[in-house]
Design a protein that fits this description.
By secondary structure, the protein is mainly alpha-helical. The protein is 47% helix and 2% strand. A two-stranded antiparallel ribbon has the order 1-2. It starts with a helix and ends in an 11-residue tail after the last helix.
């Protein structure tokens, strides 16, 4: 901005604050805004300054060069909020820089309409986040032994993406051990089912009997421990003695 352009800009300021522009003021503003052009954004910066209510309504507004610079930059930045570069896969680095700067300036200046919506993100979530969303990983803040509850259907991958043929764990839920029904690693049959391999399960009757025996042992754990103790007392292990020469 030169002295003549600065004088024009000061005329816009005078329309709001009734200042008396002078030759020295024009020179000072031209020096302060030497790298800022006299464009519509610079004029809009003055309008925005005087249409924004100050913190103290009794304060007299008096615009300065730094206000014009900052508000003009803010106006241009707002147009770039949803900016998305439209490039060419075969462009060279030099062509990319020239094309990128050209598109950036066109949108920031208002010559090209700014996008009204933000560009959509590409790609999926990282592996750890995907596992947490699928329910295969328990959050550290969850109490031990509780399982995440969800009101929407979740799609899991790997062994958790199929119903376990062994313990009937639902999709997205960890397998349960036959002892105390605690979460465990996926059963081999579940891993084979997820990989599309033959499951090779035992018969339903054998599985039912095995689970019944497991439940019986769990319900009678104290009795079993007492029987084991009595057996050891009745059949103490003999202490070996060294033969005399």
């Amino acid at each position: 901005m030169n002295r003549t352009e600065a004088a024009i800009l000061l005329g816009h300021c005078a329309a709001f604050d009734n200042r008396q522009p002078s030759e020295s003021a024009a020179q000072a503003w031209a020096a302060a805004l030497h790298d800022v052009p006299l464009d519509q954004d610079a004029k809009d910066a003055i309008v925005r300054y005087y249409t924004t209510t100050p913190k103290d309504p009794e304060t007299r507004l008096w615009i300065m060069p730094h206000h014009v610079r900052d508000l003009r930059a803010k106006i241009r930045s707002e147009r770039l909020e949803n900016f998305a570069y439209e490039g060419n896969p075969d462009e060279t680095p030099k062509e990319f820089l020239a094309r990128y700067r050209g598109q950036l300036e066109a949108v920031a200046s208002g010559a090209v309409p700014a996008p009204s919506t933000a560009p959509m993100l590409e790609g999926g979530p990282i592996k750890s986040m995907a596992e947490l969303l699928s329910g295969s990983v328990r959050h550290p803040d969850d109490p031990e032994g509780t399982e995440p509850q969800s009101t929407v259907e979740r799609r899991a991958t790997g062994p958790l993406g199929v119903i376990c043929p062994d313990c009937n764990a639902a999709i997205g839920r960890p397998c349960k051990s036959s002892w105390r029904r605690k979460p465990r690693a996926p059963h081999p049959a579940r891993r084979r089912a997820a990989a599309g391999e033959p499951i090779r399960l035992t018969s339903d009757d054998e599985r039912t009997a095995r689970r019944h025996l497991s439940d019986h042992n769990l319900n009678n754990a104290d009795e079993v421990a007492e029987l084991n103790r009595a057996f050891m007392e009745a059949n103490p292990y003999p202490t070996p003695t060294r033969e005399q020469p």
